[in-house]
Amino acid sequence: MVMLLCSANKSVITRWESLLGGQYPLEQVTLLRELKIRCAEKTFDLILLHRSLVDMAAFSELRRAAPLSKIFLLSDQPNEEEGLAFLKLGIVGYGNTYISQVRLLEAMRVISGGAVWLGQKVIQQLILESYSKTNEQSVPGSGQRLAGLTPAEHKVAELVARGQSNLEIAFNLKITERTVKAHLTSIYEKTKTGSRLSLALLINRG
């Protein structure tokens, strides 16, 4: 995976390099115009992009210039509204500029596997939006994919689809958070969803 690190703040780039620990071939740019030139010349597997380097218009131009490159946007003050707006423009990941090493490497694993990596608050917002639009779109075969769940797993899945966190589910069902996580592992495997967002979409649009 060849990565391009993009920030006008060199200390941010240095930090990202340190967190990645030499696991990937890395290139870097500090100017927006240089970023556009590099993207026109080469397709990168992943671009780590500092939010302060682009506004939405500049990002849209970049997306058109580099349609095959995945972009992970990192913001100094991430929030759900910004994350959702850029998600609609084509990012595959969204997080804090000063993300921890553990979370950054997890994001790399998820993104390299073809999935989208988002902060928990953004995911919860997406789930709530999908819940509010229940039955606007149907997913063929969703009932069959849910048929193998136990009654307890059904309850957990339904609460996930309503946007509840693991802690809230544990409280409402009077079980431990560890039990909730165990149920979710089984649910993801049985429904072939792999994430709470995909599970919520399966249920809410089923």
Q: What helical percentage do the residues reach?
A: 55-70%
Strand content: 5-15%
Shape: elongated
Query: How many domains comprise the coordinates?
Result: 2
Strand order of the largest sheet: 2-1-3-4-5
Q: Please trace the helix and strand order, writing H or E for each element.
A: EHEHEHEHEHHHHHHH
Distance between the termini: 36 Å
- Count of individual beta strands: 5
Biggest beta-sheet profile: 5 strands, parallel
Radius of gyration over alpha carbons?
Answer: 19 Å
Fill in the CATH topology of the largest domain: Rossmann fold
- List low-pLDDT spans: none
Mean pLDDT across all residues, rounded? 86
CATH architecture of the largest domain: 3-Layer(aba) Sandwich
Structural class: alpha/beta
How many separate helices? 11
CATH homologous superfamily assignment of the largest domain: Response regulator
Tell me what you see in this structure.
The protein is α/β, with parallel strands linked by helices and 206 residues long. It folds into 2 domains: 3-118, Response regulator (Rossmann fold), CATH 3.40.50; 125-204, Arc Repressor Mutant, subunit A (Orthogonal Bundle). The chain has helices at residues 10-20, 32-41, 56-65, 80-89, 101-112, 120-132, 142-146, 151-161, 166-173, 177-191, 196-204, and strands at 3-6, 26-29, 46-50, 70-75, 93-96. The protein has a 5-stranded parallel sheet, with helices on both faces. The protein is elongated, with a radius of gyration of 19 Å.
